[in-house]
Amino acid sequence: MNVQTVLDDIAAQAAAGELVFSTHAAVALRVQKLLDDADCAIESLGTLISADPLLAARTLAVANSTAYNPGGRPITELKAAIARLGFSTLRSLTASIIVRQLAGDSFQTEQAALAARLWEHTAHVAALSRVIARRITRQNPEAAFLAGILHEIGGFYLIGQAARHPGLFNNDLEPWHEDGEARVGGAILRVLDVPESLADALETVWTGFLSMPPRSLGDTVLLADELAPVESPLDALTGMSRRGMSTEIELLVDEQTLSAILAESAAEVASLANALKH
Predict the structure, then answer these.
(1) Domain boundaries, the chain
(2) Residue 175, preceding peptide bond in cis (omega within 30° of 0)
(3) 3-class secondary-structure state, position 219
(4) What is the pLDDT of residues 120-135, one digit of tens each?
């Protein structure tokens, strides 16, 4: 199998907008469009979100996470959950449904396990990105949260295409990190009409390097990716493991120490990552 040819084919298909969305993702896309309406009402959002059990459950779970509900008083109604989260976070939640569904639901056990592991990694990166944006890089935390959710969007699409290319994950996928991830991910972002500023940040994640000290939105996600306790399985498959840099990062970020910030935020990160995984 010529992996470069396969990746070229997958990138071309994504660029052509030939994306097939599941029922869950279709509802999420409708919510995204409703959120773009300046006259969008919470009641309308609640009605639409309640039509999809997965999105409704995730909305309630995140609204009850430590990150958004530090007081711990249970939120059981969608209207209250939407009000607590705000429209920016709802965009991130709908994006999380779309991203996960790009992997499809009819693949082999091996691909299902790969997608589950990739989503676990994504959930941790998104949660860490939110904390790092607020505490270190001073970026918009909700923008960082969304960027974290989207940073493996190409990987989920790649997994979803595995049935068309049997044996793909048994080959050396080095070309994926050379330019495949940026081409496929960028094409999908354009189809989904993701804002240019966010797309630029993700381009940095896919093709750039972590600057020290980290300042930009792209740096925020790259740092979260380095520190996530669950590594992307695609990194392992391509021999591009990003582990082992914690000490260097610790020395370069700030004297208030990264470990102290992460320790203080551990409950928030764990709660939010767990809410996203359901």
Answers:
(1) 1-17+107-278, 20-101
(2) no
(3) helix
(4) 999 999 999 999 999 8
